[in-house]
Q: What sequence folds into this?
């Protein structure tokens, strides 16, 4: 008969998570002990239904006290403890049973895979945690938060032996943003740790956890200060020392102090020369400082490193897709788009779900300008056959304003899934941008006032009729929108649309706040996409000019993006009269080059370099301009020589 295993848990308001957790240990543990610390949902009832023994604990801001109650109630030979937002990986069940048969081991560090980020897009971070140990009455947790037991076991049993069992895996979802926000973990943890530190100001491990919580609360410089103090009093052989160094680096980097981050990285590499995270964040820090060659070296080094030990808690992708993606970005900075595409494709091969790499690939292909070529290229390197893949592509195309492709990919998924109200609205939007007005209006007419996106649907309906010049329809829908209760800004944008239909030579200009200007910019983009620049110009004539001053750069970018070069150049000259901005000079240089004005282009590239000498794009564009200029001069010279030979060649009669 094997050893009995008790699962011990403390919970509060975990009805959404606890079923998954308890299902994961079915057939492995012999009893489930759940200590509830004050749930006001159905957590205790769910636990009882699933066979747990449930005990209630009056919460006292001390996690160890609650955990120790669960230990006191456990009758198994071994304790496995999990939180409700965790689960035991299915492939770990046999390994767990095998490890509890070991005779000379007192406890195990096992692997935990933390999911970090937003719902629907998370990254993983592995770590080692002490979660499996023998059940003895003298083994009890200590510490009000980030409670510990491994050191207690060693204090009680000097001969205790620990092992690492990486084949046993816990999956943890508690660092997903929605879970953190729901439980207000950041503020709760900080409050408890601060109380504990007041009692034990010299507790280094507690200070480490305090620094980590400060980092999670985005108090980066405070976090760095505390964590540096901890590092100065911690043995580098301590199991959490690599993570400690990384948190210091992250704190400085996130606080906008890349030089300080690099200083810590240089010191850290001396202790851990194969720690990929240090090289990855070193690359990011050099990139922040526009030290592109150094950044490249660091990212390439990260990619070349071997598999990381679990105690490094290395972030997923620092040896692969993340570093490859950054190398692609650097290649783009040098206008080397072929190399950038190679790196982005390698990034995507390492992680097919890493959308930033896919988005940058598509951006380089310019899907709005080259829809067929973009589709052809993507079909060669990606499997776009599944509805999910095509839906993702549709989203990317939509965000990059390639509405024709967005609509094509969206329509190819219809019939495979039931379309939500948001998806149908996006389809109507794309149909309008393809001038398929009737189809768009059929979709938009289906929305009722009960729908949360009804006002947006009505606005698109109004825009559709406005494009067709149907004044009475526009006025009628504007009235319906006003009856819903609009902000002053939105109402003023409606006035702009209505008054632009009038042919008055004089008119009163309309003021717009930030939201109104944002809406106007959206409308401008749609009009330029529809090749309706005059309508956009008419709208801007009716806006109080002062309202647009802070957004002039955005307006310029729109006109340039849609190929209205003369208008963009005109606005840029006005902008540069008061803003000496390297990027603006560079854009004007690009426009002059496209228009064939090489002298103007050269002059503005020079101004851009003066303003920002660390931007490689500026130099490379100037060099390419000179090459084009030289080729043009050579062609003109050959043409002149040819013309001269033709006119000056003596006739055969005259030469006799």
A:
């Amino acid at each position: 008969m094997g050893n009995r295993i008790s699962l011990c848990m403390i919970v509060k308001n975990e009805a959404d998570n606890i079923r998954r957790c308890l299902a994961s240990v079915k057939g492995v543990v012999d009893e489930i002990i759940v200590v509830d610390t004050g749930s006001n949902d159905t957590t205790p009832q769910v636990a009882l239904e699933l066979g747990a023994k449930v005990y209630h604990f009056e919460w006292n801001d001390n996690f160890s006290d609650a955990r120790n109650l669960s230990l006191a109630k456990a009758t198994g030979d071994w304790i496995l403890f999990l939180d409700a937002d965790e689960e035991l990986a299915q492939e770990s069940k046999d390994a767990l049973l095998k490890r509890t048969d070991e005779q000379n081991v007192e406890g195990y560090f096992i692997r935990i895979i933390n999911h970090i980020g937003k719902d629907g897009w998370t990254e993983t971070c592995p770590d080692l945690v002490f979660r499996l140990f023998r059940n003895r009455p003298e083994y009890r947790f200590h510490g009000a938060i980030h409670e510990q037991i491994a050191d207690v076991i060693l204090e009680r049993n000097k001969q205790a032996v620990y092992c690492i069992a990486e084949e046993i895996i816990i999956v943890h979802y508690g660092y997903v943003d929605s879970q953190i926000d729901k439980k207000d973990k950041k503020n709760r943890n900080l409050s408890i740790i601060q109380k504990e530190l007041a009692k034990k100001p010299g507790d280094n491990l507690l200070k480490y956890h305090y620094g980590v919580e400060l980092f999670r609360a985005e108090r980066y410089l405070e976090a760095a200060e505390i964590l540096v103090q901890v590092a100065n009093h911690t043995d580098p052989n301590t199991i959490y020392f690599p993570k400690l160094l990384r948190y210091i680096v992250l704190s400085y980097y996130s606080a906008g102090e890349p030089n300080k981050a690099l200083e810590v990285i240089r010191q850290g590499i001396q202790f851990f020369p194969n720690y990929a995270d240090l090289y990855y964040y070193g690359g990011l820090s050099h990139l922040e400082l526009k030290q592109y060659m150094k950044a490249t070296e660091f990212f390439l080094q990260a990619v070349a490193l071997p598999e990381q030990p679990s105690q490094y808690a290395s972030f997923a992708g620092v040896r692969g897709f993340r570093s490859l993606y950054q190398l692609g970005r650097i290649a783009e900075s040098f206008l080397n788009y072929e190399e950038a595409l190679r790196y982005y494709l390698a990034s995507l091969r390492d992680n097919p779900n890493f959308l930033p790499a896919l988005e940058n690939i598509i951006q380089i292909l310019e899907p709005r300008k080259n829809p067929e070529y973009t589709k052809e290229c993507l079909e060669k390197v990606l499997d776009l056959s599944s509805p999910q893949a095509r839906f993702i592509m549709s989203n990317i195309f939509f965000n990059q304003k390639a509405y024709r492709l967005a609509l094509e990919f969206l329509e190819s998924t219809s019939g495979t899934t039931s379309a939500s109200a948001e998806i149908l609205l996006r389809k109507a939007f794309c149909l309008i941008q393809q001038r398929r007005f009737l189809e768009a209006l059929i979709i938009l007419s289906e929305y009722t006032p009960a729908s949360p996106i009804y006002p947006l649907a009505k606005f698109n309906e109004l825009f559709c009729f406005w494009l067709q010049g149907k004044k009475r329809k526009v006025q009628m829908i504007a009235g319906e929108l006003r009856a819903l209760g609009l902000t002053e800004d939105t109402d003023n944008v409606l006035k702009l649309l209505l008054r632009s239909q009038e042919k008055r030579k004089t008119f009163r200009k309309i003021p717009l706040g930030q939201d109104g200007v944002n809406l106007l910019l959206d409308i401008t983009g749609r009009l330029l996409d529809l090749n309706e620049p005059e309508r956009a110009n008419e709208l801007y004539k009716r806006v109080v000019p002062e309202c647009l001053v802070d957004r002039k750069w955005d307006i310029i970018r729109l006109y340039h993006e849609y190929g209205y070069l003369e208008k963009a150049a005109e606005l840029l000259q006005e902008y540069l009269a008061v803003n000496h901005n390297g990027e603006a000079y560079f854009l004007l240089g690009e426009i002059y080059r496209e228009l064939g004005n090489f002298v103007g282009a050269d002059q503005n590239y020079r101004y851009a370099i003066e303003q920002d000498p660390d931007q490689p794009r500026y130099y490379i564009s100037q060099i390419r301009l000179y090459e084009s200029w030289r080729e043009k001069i050579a062609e003109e010279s050959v043409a002149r020589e040819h013309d001269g030979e033709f006119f000056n060649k003596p006739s055969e009669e005259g030469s006799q």
Summary: The longest helix spans residues 616-648. The chain has four domains: 1-176, 184-319, 486-574, 580-642.
